[in-house]
Amino acid sequence: MILKSRVSVVKRVSSLSRFKSITNHTDSERVKLSHAVIIFLFLFISAVSATDHIVGANRGWNPGINYTLWANNHTFYVNDLISFRYQKNQYNVFEVNQTGYDNCTTDGAVGNWSSGKDFILLDKAKRYYFICGNGGCFQGMKVSVLVHPLPPPPSSSTAAAAGVSKPNSAAARARMSGLMESFCLVLWIGWIWLGSGWI
Question: What's the pLDDT at 7?
Answer without folding.
Answer: 47
